[in-house]
Design brief:
The chain has 214 residues and is mainly α. The protein has one domain. Helix content is 71%, strand content 0%. The N and C termini lie far apart (59 Å).
Length: 214
């Protein structure tokens, strides 16, 4: 328990390193005052270009993976692998919370999708490909990045339960439900705009719809 208490603040502080806000400070801008006002990769792409957005995604995915990896470290203690995996899940959740409510940026951060993706690269890499495929398909057909992220949040518990090893299945299910609920919460405004028909559509990403028309 003491080891977990040591790890969790580290994971949260890592999560608080929000890629768009860190790079924004280096460029003298606050991305929360541009475009949609969100500190995520999509708004970074729309307002600052693909190079800036790529840096944002690398930082946000990297910190999620690093937080999960730190959770797996025993730090010299003789702890069962199942317990360390639970540490990693909890650290991943804390890192995502840090991204959404970052200590360094007035507790106003992003929505957490890239951070969750980085955590899954360490915790359950088999889940990354199907989740990414779903995300791309939803964007390709609809052009709504928010809808794609909401779709990921909804299927996370099923995918986590299905692909996790039997010994870790219950812990992964609890984590996936928690992280999915958090992602739905951070995308609540997107959901409201989707229902109202006012959500911004990323037209350039609607490749599958254009191919069908052709």
């Amino acid at each position: 328990m003491l080891l977990l208490v040591f790890k969790l603040p580290i994971a949260y502080l890592l999560g608080s390193i929000v890629g768009s806000l860190v790079l924004g400070r280096l460029h003298g801008v606050d991305i929360r005052k541009q475009g949609s006002g969100n500190a995520g990769g999509t708004n970074a792409l729309r307002t600052r270009g693909w190079r800036f957005a790529l840096g944002v995604v690398v930082i946000d995915i990297g910190k999620g993976a690093l937080a999960a990896w730190i959770g797996l470290l025993p730090f010299g203690s003789s702890i069962a692998a199942e317990t360390l995996y639970l540490h990693a899940l909890t650290c991943a959740l804390c890192a995502t919370i840090g991204h959404v409510w970052p200590l360094y940026f007035g507790f106003a951060g992003g929505k957490g999708v890239a951070t969750v993706a980085g955590a899954f690269l360490v915790l359950l890499p088999l889940a990354v490909a199907p989740l990414l495929l779903l995300w791309l398909l939803v964007i390709g057909f609809s052009g709504y990045v928010g809808l794609a992220s909401i779709s990921i949040a909804i299927v996370l518990p099923l995918v986590g339960w299905w692909l996790a090893p039997a010994a870790q299945r219950s812990d992964m299910l609890l984590f996936a439900v928690s992280i999915g609920a958090l992602l739905l919460f951070t995308h609540r405004a997107n959901l409201q705009r989707l229902l109202a028909g006012t959500e911004n559509r990323f037209e350039r990403a609607r490749l599958l719809t254009r191919l069908r028309r052709d």
